[in-house]
Amino acid sequence: MLWGLKFYNDFLNEAGPLGNVQSELLFRKEASTFTFEKGWAFPRRIYFNGDNCVMPPPDAYPWLPNACFRSVISLLQPIMTLLASCVFLWAYM
């Protein structure tokens, strides 16, 4: 999503007879304006159809999920081990 003037992207609704709208976005990567935080690459400013547009800050976008998941077994395993040990000790006493 490009942030710019209100109702500026209305021309996308007027797609024409074939229903195809195309725009060309060229990104020039500069170390001072291009970031790669939390898995996303964000340009700070872009030129969209000849207009200068400012992109939202990287913190406004959702983060990418981690590759690993939080395991419930890690908490369940010590509890079950302790419970099984108590049952075996009680049974053999």
Automatic annotation (TrEMBL):
Coiled coil: none annotated. Keywords: Glycoprotein, GPI-anchor, Lipoprotein, Membrane, Signal, Transmembrane, Transmembrane helix. The keyword Amino-acid biosynthesis does not apply. InterPro entries: COB_C, COBRA_pln. Residues 2-62 form the COBRA C-terminal domain. It comes from the Eukaryota. The chain crosses the membrane at residues 72-92. Belongs to the COBRA family. This is COBRA C-terminal domain-containing protein. It comes from Hibiscus syriacus (Rose of Sharon). The lineage of its organism: Eukaryota, Viridiplantae, Streptophyta, Embryophyta, Tracheophyta.
